[in-house]
Amino acid sequence: MANIGNYLYGFTDTGFQPEPELRGLAGAAIRVISFREIAAVVSRHPVQRLMPSRSNIEPHHRVVRHVSSRVTLVPAAFGHITDSESQILEVLRGNYEDIRDEIERLNHRCEMAVKLCWNVGNIFDHLVRTNRELRNLRDRVFRNRQPTMNEKLQVGGAFEATLLRERERLTRVLLAAFDAVARDSVSSAPRSEKTVCELALLVEQAHANEFRQALQAAAGMFDSSFTFEYSGPWPPYSFVKLHLQSPGASNAA
Prior knowledge:
Elements: E1 4-13, E2 30-35, E3 38-46, H1 54-70, E4 74-75, E5 81-82, H2 85-94, H3 96-105, E6 109-118, H4 123-130, H5 132-142, H6 149-176, E7 182-188, E8 195-204, H7 208-219, E9 226-234
Antiparallel strand pairs: 1-3, 1-4, 1-5, 2-3, 6-8, 6-9, 7-8
Helix pairs in contact: 4-5, 5-6
């Protein structure tokens, strides 16, 4: 039978006290373990490897979002369990200054997600139409004859290079629109060929109006060849920079 340990949702200050009805994984009550003026937000859970199933991930994110809506929380990644309360205290004690500084750095800040995609039927055809060098190469290779495999690979390589350059250029254009409101940014690798970029922006919660204005200005910079999506505010997952020392913990963050 598995020991009962503590599942970690993140770190905050000791002023936070969760409501009795707030529940986490497996319906367990949320509580805090404090050291000086910092605290870990946890719930009791068997010490075991957690599967990233919806029944586990949903309560993790729900608790993180709820706590973040009330206080500054440095969110932990999904799946961290310690064997005992004493191990949580060791983490707090051994990383006290780093956790305190991270809480201060992320204070009153949230994450906004912005995604830019090409809204075209065929991205190769679109880049051929808009890039003279790629168009000339395509025409030279495919005009009036069957190209060799090496020539096809040459065109494919030119397409990939053009795609990368366009992504980099358009990402710079998009980021420039948020210079005045974003304190930091993180770019994720595109998950589809038509994705230009997926950005996480660290924004002051008090500057929501300024962010919306920047968002409208950014959307107006792109024509109907693009789609523009955003979501948030979210807890600042992408901007946590803690690298904790976890003495004696089996799965601590």
